[in-house]
Description:
twelve-stranded mixed beta sheet, 10 helices, binds S-adenosylmethionine, about 25% helix
Amino acid sequence: MLTDKFNRVHNYLRISLTDKCNLRCAYCNPIDLPKGYFRGLPRMTADEIEQIVSVFVKEGVKKIRLTGGEPLVRKDAQEIIERISKYPVELAISTNGVLVDKYIDAFKNAGIQSVNVSLDSLTREKFFAITKRDEFNRILDNIYLLLQHDFHVKINVVVMKAVNDDELNDFIAWTKHLPLHVRFIEFMPFAGNEWSREKVFSYQEMLDQISKEYNFMKLQDAKHDTDKKYFVPGHDGTFAIISTMSQPFCGGCNRMRLTTDGKMKNCLFSKSEVDILSTLRNGQDITPLIKQCVWEKEKALGGQFTSVYENLDASKISNRSMINIGG
Ligand code: SAM
């Protein structure tokens, strides 16, 4: 079992398959990466990913999410999905949706039931302004395709002031006749992503805006949930808010991350990384490193800031960009 100093049991691993992406959202994939980081990192092979997964599973991991970059741009994504699906874990995936139609059968064969799709706007023009790519219609078609095939579909929306904060109720209207689960995410600071507190549209501001149009009710959240769930009576779908900045949820954290280049992070905001891949390549046991990494986890937010984010100087945070870490 992987436990930290605060008695948190860690049984959920997020693996970044690649730091490449077919979209160019500046908040995630900034033009200028911090010193020492570049796009197209040397990456773990499918074989190495499977070996690392087998160790994590032996240590009690029950859930694995494949992410990136965009995991589905990796040429051997299907092989990796197939290989991990042989392990006794709940397998999930986060994608921008562009290539989903090519993977429907692979998802089904691997027993994937839930797919998270990122979509920050419901208009083609704004989607293009955010992502610099004209893929809106293709993504929408793929979301409907996932629903036709009975996947549980969560839509991740990063909400930024004066960018898409006027669209919350449009997303909720979308859930009236469709079983979509929209999750509004507070904008988080990463290297090079031009975060500022003025751009954060907070949990409370979101609730205030939604309440202008909808009566909604709270749903029960599970112990490790990062989102606070709600439903509007009469809607087929639900909505939720991921309040990392204003109300962090580190107390119930059970997550670990593995970057494309085989470094383990015990928190999205951890300063340090542990080089699992080099140790594996040297033929050594990676278990002690994994245990140590979990043990050293900070109590909250990688020890880098607090929920009083109004005072946060983002330039002082030491971290990679989101595309480099794996979201
Ligand atoms: N390409 C996949 C996707 O689009 O879901 C997986 C990787 S992406 C980094 C994972 C999630 O992180 C996406 O929902 C993305 O919007 C979110 N994300 C990236 N940068 C973020 C930031 N600065 N603040 C909040 N969420 C962010």
